[in-house]
Amino acid sequence: MPGRIEVSGRVAGRWQTATLTEIRRETPRAATFRFAVPGWAGHLPGQHLMLRLTAGDGYVAQRHYSLASAPDDSGHIELTLDHVAGGEVSGWFHTVARPGDRIEVRGPLSGFFAWPGDRPALLLGAGSGVVPLMSMVRHHRARGLTAPLRLLVSARSPEELIYAREYGAETTPVFTRSAPDGTPVGRLTAAHLAPLLADPPAGGWEAYVCGSNSFAEHASRLLVAAGQPVDRIRIERFG
């Protein structure tokens, strides 16, 4: 079973200046923020970074955020942030930040949730948990990778489905509150996983689960019940 990917402590330990170049609205509560980071060393899909904001009075706030962008040589990275009620960092991004603003970033961090593109990947995400998984989907497309990849993404409604315009045949959306006509409403179930796990690709799936604590628990239990080996389930959770 492929294990943790090593992360360079020298690179990940260095703070770099990132300049905000673009803001794209994804849903009423989520937006993508694109940054130019000339010294960015590159990353693997699934990794995250540490972000640091410093106020005029010297107050410092730091947060971990998953990278949404696929690795490339453009010197740019993207983060997709929910506007969290009362969140000082997400609140600043959604109400104050403008192109040209500068922040500090450190990373990439963590090799456990990274996907190099060399193994079949079964991705399960909910809400903003889809962010690191979308980095994997984008990487898969940009490189024309042949390793099988499938994404099941859960959202409360089509209006709250982050990256809705980008999904293709590899993606199955699951809506828990409201859905388009003809689409069932409800949580992710064993029926969604059955066709994928009943006939897995050669070598089996490496499963990546990202979302709230409750979603991560629910999705991982479904995977295990369907026969996915526990040591081939990688989980990143928040909340």
From TrEMBL:
Residues 13-115 form the FAD-binding FR-type domain. Its cofactor is FAD. Pfam families: FAD_binding_6. Keywords: 2Fe-2S, Iron, Iron-sulfur, Metal-binding. The keyword Hydrolase does not apply. InterPro entries: Cbr1-like_FAD-bd_dom, FAD-bd_FR_type, FNR_nucleotide-bd, MRET, Riboflavin_synthase-like_b-brl. One of its GO terms (molecular function) is oxidoreductase activity. PROSITE patterns: FAD_FR (PS51384). It comes from the Bacteria. This is Ferredoxin reductase. It comes from Streptomyces griseicoloratus.
